[in-house]
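Hello forum,

I keep getting stuck at the same step: I have a sequence, I want structure tokens, and every attempt I make locally crashes halfway through. Rather than fight my setup again tonight, could one of you with a working pipeline run this one for me? It's a single chain of 342 residues.
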Amino acid sequence: MVLVSIIIAGIIAYYIIQLTHTMQSAISLTQPVTVQVKPGDSVRTIAAQLVAQDVLDKPQYFILWGRLHNQSRHIQAGEYVLKNAETLAMLLEHMVNGEVVQHKITLIEGITFRQMLAQMEKNPFLVHTLSHTPTKTIMTRLGHPAQLPEGRFFPDTYDISVGMKDIDLLRRAYETMQRILTQEWQQREKNLPLKNAYQALILASIVEKETAVKEERPLIAGVFINRLNRKMRLQTDASVIYGIKNYDGNIRFKDLRKDTPYNTYTRYGLPPTPVAMPGRAAIHAVLHPDKTDKLYFVAYGDGSGRHFFSSNLTQHEKAVDKYQRRKRTRRRRTDRKRTDRK
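Reply #2:
Ran it on my machine without issues. Output:
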């Protein structure tokens, strides 16, 4: 009996040593190994996946370790990565703690809500639940049925995990915008011609669309604030374009004359909603605009994205002649010459 007990103890000790060695030894990998855990997957299923990927040759050790450490019933679904020099025990801990792989998605400043949804639709890591869903239904699902979606989602780079729902990403972007807009509104300068934070959001979206040059945002915001204070029309192409159905990339004179709720050439004040998703810099610029006497600006048209600013209409007309009209005239002449050569 003593001899039998010794043999059994030796066998148990051997397997414990083998188990510990298998689970706690650093694994040498030429590249990380991805492990997909679906809801309801057992530790046995995961072990089989590791065997198929040539990471594990004795699945019973992985299964036994998970059961001995009470981890089998606490594994969370998701995507996990086993890296070089890590151990299988560490992998199980990651799965229990839900330390899933984080991918990134960047919602770009200045895009519209529709463009943002299209961008999310192409992301392979999100679960798409909003395809062909009306915007009103989306806002209802987010708990804000009375709100229009444009401008209410903060453009930023977000971490997402495989299996995350698109509605959950929207909820995070919405909450982030609410937090940032509230912070900026509370710290705003006094005597701005803006009644509430939503009006600031509308104007910030216009500033966002008018320039990609960071340094210009406070000055462009100052121009629009001056125009609002003087009861002048904003006359911004960004809002006009937003109000054009099936915009083809070319704004025409007739578009500036056609009255829509977003035509700031025909209507005074702000458009009814934002026209894009503004970033924090644009929001801050609107609430802390430059103190300036400028009332007009026109793009240089040289590819820099910069603008020439004027204090009165005479200066502005000269700038338009210099940077836009003459440029268009030269382009037409060049086109005619090319036609004559044919």
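The first strand starts at residue 33 and ends at 37. If your local run keeps crashing, start a new thread with the error log.
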